[in-house]
Amino acid sequence: MSGNLPHRPPVLRKPVVRTRRGLGGALPALIIVSLFFVVPVVALLLRSVTEPTPGLQNYAILFGDGTYARVFFNTFLVASIVTAVTVMVAFPVAWTLAIMPPALGSIVFGIIILSMWTNLLTRTYAWMVLLQRTGVINRTLMDIGLISEPLPLINNLTGVTIGMVYIMLPFMILPLVGTLRAIDPMTLRAAALCGASPLDAFRRILLPLSLPGIAAGGLMVFVMSLGYFVTPTLLGGTSNMMLAGMIAQMIQSLLNWGLGSAAAFILLVVTMALYALQLRLVGTQRVTGGV
């Protein structure tokens, strides 16, 4: 019976091509990361423990002196306030852009992007003119009778917050717009048909779905705010010094490279720790905006 079976042609199998999984393809990226990140960080760490004498005395000074501790606290306080206010201001703007007609939305979006291309120092000086005691804001409020004397809007936390929120807004709006545009409007309509109030729809549907954009923008704004120098220095003054200003003063004025390097290294470590914590709590996809 085996002789009556039809002859089957041999099955031709494609040769297995094994790809080389070495580090050759990633070598250029590793070199760039090493030159522009690893080497400067290692140099920073070495200077912090070798100048003026080898040891950990620079870190002991930073953690033991109340003045430096106050600067660290002020830095994270300002960054937290700026991030929170930026989220509250950027969310309605981003939602408006998301539901706006495409033609009009492109124009408004272009205006927001255009503000990012304006010189940072020029924008900060413009806020100095607006916020001073004889500035446009105080004079307008006094002319319409809302206040009887000028408000202290500069050389304090208020001025720093206003200036930095204005500068950070585009970095929060950009990821939020992308996230909100990806939300199906029928979801909100279905919630309304089921009896949900606008507040419930926002709290239970819109806000949870927009968390990837909030996480991505919030992380970007917070990290950038930690290392900001120009705006806090001009609008906050010496009484509201942040860590970047203190590092610049240590290195440029006092020529204390060891203490300045230690402060910069501490800021780097804390920033990376916060980023790792957010990755663990929120998730990679939410932190990166779903990218």
UniProtKB/TrEMBL annotation:
<keyword id="KW-0812">Transmembrane</keyword>
<feature type="transmembrane region" description="Helical">
    <location>
        <begin position="71"/>
        <end position="91"/>
    </location>
</feature>
<keyword id="KW-0472">Membrane</keyword>
<feature type="domain" description="ABC transmembrane type-1">
    <location>
        <begin position="72"/>
        <end position="278"/>
    </location>
</feature>
<feature type="transmembrane region" description="Helical">
    <location>
        <begin position="23"/>
        <end position="46"/>
    </location>
</feature>
<dbReference type="InterPro" id="IPR000515">
    <property type="entry name" value="MetI-like"/>
</dbReference>
<protein>
    <submittedName>
        <fullName>Putative spermidine/putrescine transport system permease protein</fullName>
    </submittedName>
</protein>
<feature type="transmembrane region" description="Helical">
    <location>
        <begin position="250"/>
        <end position="277"/>
    </location>
</feature>
<dbReference type="GO" id="GO:0005886">
    <property type="term" value="C:plasma membrane"/>
</dbReference>
<keyword id="KW-0813">Transport</keyword>
<keyword id="KW-1003">Cell membrane</keyword>
<feature type="transmembrane region" description="Helical">
    <location>
        <begin position="160"/>
        <end position="184"/>
    </location>
</feature>
<feature type="transmembrane region" description="Helical">
    <location>
        <begin position="205"/>
        <end position="230"/>
    </location>
</feature>
<comment type="similarity">
    <text>Belongs to the binding-protein-dependent transport system permease family. CysTW subfamily.</text>
</comment>
<dbReference type="Pfam" id="PF00528">
    <property type="entry name" value="BPD_transp_1"/>
</dbReference>
<feature type="transmembrane region" description="Helical">
    <location>
        <begin position="103"/>
        <end position="121"/>
    </location>
</feature>
<dbReference type="InterPro" id="IPR035906">
    <property type="entry name" value="MetI-like_sf"/>
</dbReference>
<keyword id="KW-1133">Transmembrane helix</keyword>
<dbReference type="GO" id="GO:0055085">
    <property type="term" value="P:transmembrane transport"/>
</dbReference>
